[in-house]
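Assemble and predict.
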Amino acid sequence: DIVMTQTPLSSPVTLGQPASISCRSSQSLVKSDGNTYLSWLQQRPGQPPRLLLYKISSRFSGVPDRFSGSGTETDFTLKISRVEAEDVGIYYCMQGKQFPFTFGPGTKVDIK
Amino acid sequence: VQLLQSGGGLVQPGGSLSLSCAASGFTFNQYSMIWFRQSPGRGLEWVSAIGGAGRDTYYTDSAKGRFTISRDNSKSMLYVQMNSLRAEDTAMYYCAVWGPNGDLPYWGQGTLVTVS
């Protein structure tokens, strides 16, 4: 199985300031079709996960442009340019390259 | 798009439970579907997947032989039958659409399964 790790596990941030989360996979997430199947999901308290980004950096419909993704092969980053109160939650990276799809442990973002 | 889950609840070890996921707002038979679960100790886990036509099914090792995923495209329904349940199957279970970009664009609200 592909192991996903994330740092930090907790990220207290000031409103309006940027936040950054790193994700690493135990093997390349580039599939034979040339695409890299790395997604980022947000989970607010009491809610199911919500897709933010797919294929590293493509924003899902309705996701604010303050969320951006970057990276290649095995190292990826989610950035929030200016954190808003509604961004509080747990952020997960997920690999969709092969079964079983696997998730990172999550990074808790809260407000200082 | 809406995924409305039902089923779940409290069951004794060794018992069985069936979960359902009613889909609407998209052409159900064109999309593969996935079951995930989430527990405090194990985080988010992929459990099972099924192709759009229902012919191809996939399971995580811990679900093989105990869980059966199925779908009824005429009713836009996804199911998972869970047998021989164990304490470690206790979790919130989610159904999700498996998008064409290897993504998970839509999720159900979740249903809690407690094995005790």
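The longest strand of chain A covers residues 19-25.
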